Fold:
Amino acid sequence: MASGGSAKGYALVGVVVVIVLATTGVWNPFPRIWSWINQSDPIAEGVASWQTSIGGSPRSVTISGGAIVVGYRTSVEAYGITAGVRLWKSDADWAGVAGGDSDAVVVVGRLLTKGYEVLDPATGAVRRRDTEATAVWTYADAVLDLRCPRAGECELSAWEPRGSQPMWTVGTPGIGFVLDAANPDLPDTQPPGSSRIAAGAGGPRRLPSLIGLPGDGKIEVVDTAQGRVVQTRTPGRDQRVAVVGSRVLTVTGEARDGTCYYSVIAHDPPNGRPVWQRAALNLRTADNGSSCKQDRDPAGGDEVVLGVDSVGRPELIAAHDGRVLWRGEKGQSVLAVDDDYALVRTADSKTLVARSFSGGGVAWRRGLTANAQAALTPYAAVVAQEKPARVIAVSPRSGAVLTEARTDAKVLAVGPGGLIVVAGRDMAYLPFGS
Structure:
């Protein structure tokens, strides 16, 4: 017992001596100890060109203009894509990225505060300020902002990403104060869900030819080429309206015989005439059941919508003319879709098949593990697998592997040269060809 007590006493004396030396500046081992404790494990060892610690759990990450823009709950930062060095930081409650590599900008603002700032992604310098807008949408070729000086009286303006004057402004009566901050939800399509790949990983998409502004029980349909309201839709209680490409889709769900019966009609906004319609087509705007309460937008991507026919087979439909681009079999599932391709998981969950809409057939196929997820971006098709955890980026056209890493990190951004993956508070860049 005495020996044990002596050992504890010597240890206590040692700790006291170290503390005294540290506080007097003679010798301080604590920074090295904490550095060793906090040292992060490699996210994608042997594949990532760099890895860096970031300021918290990001809400969004976008590759644009040679920089990586990271948005948090109360701030936004930019990192250089070459070495992951932080370029600048700004206080902001929301952020969005617009433009491409040559004209990219970062749009930032504060909650409950009108206006926004347009920043240079490389330096953080302010290029333009606005003091009246309540909501902003960022696209690859435009910035839209909405201002409502009085209740029920709003104006929507379109800007070139680095423009100093609006391209057009249109009045949108009846919208009211219902839209705010960056990229508030609009009635369009929603991509199939993925927990390991961010929905906006591919960066800002191009401005659609039509957008719908919801408010006061109506949807104002705006032609973005001409800058004018071309139609006002007032959906019924059993209807869901979505603006997809150049068409306005109205989904009606009728509760009858203990189930829900759906029908879809597509209108051409300028003349209001129906272009196509389908009975017994479920666009997944409601949960299964007999209530028929439609509380979400149709599944799909760009101008393609994902539906289920009357016998439970998945379908991909061109919103423009109602053509069936692909009809699957029961048990097959669409993991991702855009205007050019669809990624389909076979019924046995063992194979991923890429179908080309322009080619009309299978573009490529590859093996798949159970519970794998996938997404399509302009630069790569991304697959996230489990057991073993892996992230794979392939060419959407050929299926050739662009990069592959053993990691369970989440893919938050995809650019022309590689992927950004994040695990906790660590971010890494996986270049294509690695």
In short: The helical segments are 2-23, 30-38.
